[in-house]
Amino acid sequence: AGGGRAALRACGVHNVCRLLTRRAHGFYARDAGVAHRKNLGLLRRIMCQESTKFKNVWTTHSASPIAYERGRIYMDNYQCCITSIAQQPRLIYQKSKCAKSEKIEDALLLECPLGEMLPNPSDYKASLIVLTVQNWLLRLSADSGEVLEKVYLAGSCCKFFRYLSWDTPQEVMIVKSAQNKLPAAARQAGIQQTVLFYLAVFQVLPLSFIGMLEINKKIFGNSVTDVAVSNGILIVMYSMGLVRLYNFKAILEQFMEQPFDLGQEFNWNGQVGVVGKYPFGLPCNIKITDTPPLLFEASSLENAFQIGGYPWHYIITPNKKKHKGVFHICSLKDNALAKNGIQDMKCCSLEPDWIYFHPDMSGRIIHVGPNLIKVLKLKEVKNHADQMEIAEDFTIVANRENCVNNNVTVTASGRVVKKRFALLDDDPEQETFKIVDYEDELDLLSTVAVTQIGADGRAHLDFHCNEHGILLKSIPLKESWDVTYSHEVYFDKDLVLHIEQKPNRRFSCYVYQMVCDTARDDD
Hints:
The chain crosses the membrane at residues 195-215, 227-246. It comes from Ploceus nigricollis. This is DCA17 factor. One of its GO terms (biological process) is protein ubiquitination. The structure is a single chain. By secondary structure, the protein is mainly beta. Helices cover 10% and strands 45% of the residues. It is built from six helices and 36 strands. The strands form ten sheets. It has a four-stranded antiparallel beta sheet with strand order 1-36-35-34, with no helix packed on it. A four-stranded antiparallel beta sheet has the order 2-3-4-5, with no helix packed on it. The longest helix is centred in the first third of the chain and has 14 residues, at 34-47. It is globular and about 85 Å long. The termini are far apart.
């Protein structure tokens, strides 16, 4: 207490709230993380200097998908790992080609939690959780690809686990099966399939089994099309656009029949085996016998539903095809539509605009159209503290200064020519936004805009101030960008990485590194 008062007197701050705010902003040199924040601030300033360039230092092509996770490039179905942190990407490890039965279906990067005691030294290093086609869950060393742990998932109940996701990032993991479908012969014989999905739940580091449950038609209804778990909420989606939310933690506690640990011998429903070992796998020890209490439900086109903001709001599209591209922002508390809560860009384009809550946890909303990005904020209506309105924080506009889109033109001879069709808002010949992302460590909003010039497409990656939207840096991408291909762009501190998927499963990866161009090298 005496030390805290001394710190207050020393810095001239006499208010505890102000002191905590100054600590959060890194005013005190002895606070943990201050040096890291200062270094990131320096990196941001260096990166946005005019003399700083991003140079294409490495390019590769592959016949199999290419993935990127935190400075590591994975190829050949995760058998090859390349670091992108070095001045030029270099090989970390190369494993022998795996059999089709060992093919990896999905993967998650697992990072060590701070300030926790873990049972094994290997737990303190990054690892990769992978799911194989034969229902093995493996934890691999990110540095060597060595198998650190392995769990067999599928017993007699399910043979098609395919998807990995986080319930709570880096804490609770969900392994989801593909949707169970009976063979045509079984359906013709009148056999009914009531179990649609299986979900296996794990705590990570140390890896421990929480339980496995089934999503059953008898409990959740016949028209279920998909399920997901996020932040303690079970999300059930239906064919008619309905989305229902349930308390996942309460389901685990209420319907858990018996807890099991990995490696534990068990006798379960006439089966004797070891939890997580072949051939028994995991017991389905969570049996939902009654419909859980409903937290919330909404109807939205294509089950599109998001929650965020402060106070809590949700975004939906009215469940009719004519409303595609129209977004309603409503209060989660009472379903009231916010003032100015209907967002409609009225764009005429092949690809629809999209909207989502800003990942910086500010509660703002990002709405992206072909030539316009709106960053919106929630604020109280004046003189109505219980009502919220949507206001524009800032906008980012595509550069279309040289674009002329007149339906009527006059030739040199004076003849009037009318165009039969107007250009679309995302016409390839006009600069169009394709990707919008957020770099949390540098607090920058990044955008990729593309212009097709004849058969050649040109793209540039722009960095904007996340607070005000001001353009700070623009990086031209050297490679041609075909708008008909699938693209992913990662901006990770001083690295830019572009992954492109061409027809016939051809993949390309382009790596750019930051270079302080003091010698004015045009490379």
